[in-house]
Design goal:
Helix content: 40-55%
CATH topology: Glutaredoxin
Radius of gyration: 22 Å
Oligomer: single chain
Distance between the termini: 42 Å
Shape: globular
CATH superfamily: Glutaredoxin
CATH class: Alpha Beta
Number of strands: 6
Length: 223
């Protein structure tokens, strides 16, 4: 076989169709107008909103079960994006929610899944903390005490945050206002019945609070 002439090779390369680079949509994160964090293709046909509370055991079970299949079968394909919105239930939940927001969109989902992956450990410390009488304190002082006494600071420091960064996240008034606004919208606007709750393309799914039921409500995953 005769070697291919360089000019012909150059022509072949020039006229070959460009190969589209595959996008890893699981690494695409953004902030919604209400303040929730979104993972996935912003133009996905299916938009899933998760209303969660960090002190909710059912939310922990859901997140730990659903994270992998959602990423592999929907988010990575660009067919669905997920938005996490807070539905705060108590001061511990608020503390965890503010710490989860440390670092913005690029850090949020790692923080979010870390809090739920270690749910049992830090919630045991919450129970011990809650059983002891505490002196009256401002909300800022109370959240700092909660974070340092229940293992939340230690957990987030393993994620690479410094103590000063974490304190700043708890003291961030704008972030707190976003979390509280989402909470009000969840309970009074969307009128969720509990956590976790889900909405698909703006429609709240009644009586859907766990992965199997949610999976059945999503478009079929492509194999």
């Amino acid at each position: 076989m005769k070697p291919l002439h360089l000019a012909a090779l150059g022509l072949a390369l020039a006229t070959a169709p460009a190969i589209a680079e595959k996008v890893d949509w699981t690494k695409r994160t953004s902030l919604s107008t209400i303040g929730g964090y979104i993972q996935g293709n912003p133009d996905a046909k299916t938009r899933l909103v998760e209303y969660i509370s960090y002190t909710c055991s059912h939310c922990a079970d859901f997140t730990n079960t659903a994270e992998a299949p959602l990423k592999v079968n929907w988010i990575s394909r660009g067919t669905l994006n997920v938005e996490i919105r807070n539905a705060v239930r108590d001061r511990y939940d608020l503390t965890a929610a503010l710490l989860a927001r440390c670092g913005g969109p690029t850090k949020f989902f790692g923080n979010h899944h870390t809090l739920f992956a270690n749910y049992d450990a830090w919630m045991k410390q919450v129970q011990t903390y809650d059983s002891k009488e505490r002196p009256a304190a401002t909300i800022d002082a109370a959240m700092e005490d909660i974070a340092s006494s229940t293992g939340l600071y230690a957990l987030m420091q393993k994620r690479g945050f410094t103590g000063a960064q974490l304190k700043a996240c708890l003291a961030d008034r704008a972030s707190r206002e976003k979390v509280l606004a989402m909470t009000q919208d969840a309970w009074e606007g969307a009128k969720i019945g509990g956590t976790p709750s889900f909405a698909v393309n703006g429609r709240l799914l009644p009586d859907v609070h766990e992965w199997k039921a949610l999976e059945a409500a999503l478009p079929p995953a492509r194999n």
